[in-house]
Design goal:
The chain has eleven helices and ten strands. By secondary structure, it is α/β, with parallel strands linked by helices. It folds into two domains: 55 residues; 204 residues, Rossmann fold.
Length: 281
């Protein structure tokens, strides 16, 4: 819409447009805030909310982020932080997938939880949170469990999938689905003071290698519990991996596993030919 483009160009100051201008443009031209944001970025105009990104992320890269579609499987400890960070980063479409409701034991670590939201579906809380903090981002809530039978439907037109699960069998199945669909998968796992992150590219079968010694039963992440800070740290690294994948820049953790011990503050990188610190093995 040429009128919208002219309006945004005229309102920009120092290459930025304010949130108030975005709201006014959406109302004046009867378009969504997402449309306004994409149009501005296409004009190399940066929404002011992202101005602190400018030294690390160019306007062109910000447009790539906005046009990105990311599926987050699991909206609990890891997933809640990932969804929050992706939306603040400016990723345009986030598909939040989780069948569960908030329970009291979630309150110690799950960003989207609160006493007022006990009993609420986690994906509903995710949608409400993103509408509050960045309504130019589209949050698609899917209150369903991932399964091999619905993978094609869940991940249609997705660029990256984030593993924020707490079940080894389910994440192995998710890794296989992503491999079959040709999608990169950013894996994170946590247990107590410990966490790990890796990124699987199609054809690598990284997660199968990572859990090659896993035997049936609950992983350590379910046995050890998690304090509030562990999911925040691991989710931040997962979000950085997603950011690089969408922008097509930097070095990812492909064929590498980052192992983190927050009790001793040790960070170790392991080649995945020897997966010695996998959570849940």
């Amino acid at each position: 819409m040429e009128e919208l483009r002219r309006y945004l160009a005229g309102e920009a100051k120092d290459g930025l447009i304010s949130w108030a201008t975005q709201i006014e443009a959406a109302a004046r031209f009867r378009v969504s805030l997402a449309r306004v944001e994409e149009t501005a970025l296409d004009l190399a105009i940066l929404p002011a909310r992202y101005q602190r990104n400018r030294q690390a992320i160019s306007v062109g890269q910000q447009l790539k982020l906005f046009r990105g579609r990311v599926a987050v499987v699991g909206c609990g400890g890891l997933g809640g932080y990932v969804i929050e960070e992706l939306s603040r980063l400016g990723v345009g479409t986030i598909i939040a997938i989780d069948p569960d409701f908030f329970e009291e034991h979630n309150l110690n670590r799950q960003l989207l939880s609160s006493p007022a939201r006990l009993g609420q579906a986690k994906v509903e809380a995710a949608a409400a949170r993103i509408a509050e903090i960045n309504s130019a981002v589209t949050l698609v809530p899917v209150q369903a469990a991932y399964g091999t039978e619905n993978a094609v439907e869940l991940f249609q037109d997705v660029d990256v999938v984030v593993d924020a699960l707490d079940s080894v069998p389910t994440r192995l199945a998710l890794a296989d689905s992503c491999d079959g669909l040709g999608l990169p998968l950013v894996h994170g796992a946590i247990g107590g003071w410990f966490g790990q992150v890796t990124t699987q590219f199609p054809g690598d079968r990284t997660i199968r290698l990572l859990y090659d010694r896993w035997v049936e039963g609950k992983g350590l992440e379910q046995q050890m519990g998690n304090p509030s800070f562990t999911p925040a740290v691991i989710a931040g690294i997962q979000t950085a991996e997603v950011c690089k994948l969408l922008m097509g820049t930097g070095d990812t953790l492909r064929n590498r596993q980052l192992c983190i011990n927050l009790l001793t503050m040790e960070f170790e990188e392991v080649e995945l030919s020897s997966p010695d610190c996998a959570i849940g093995q």
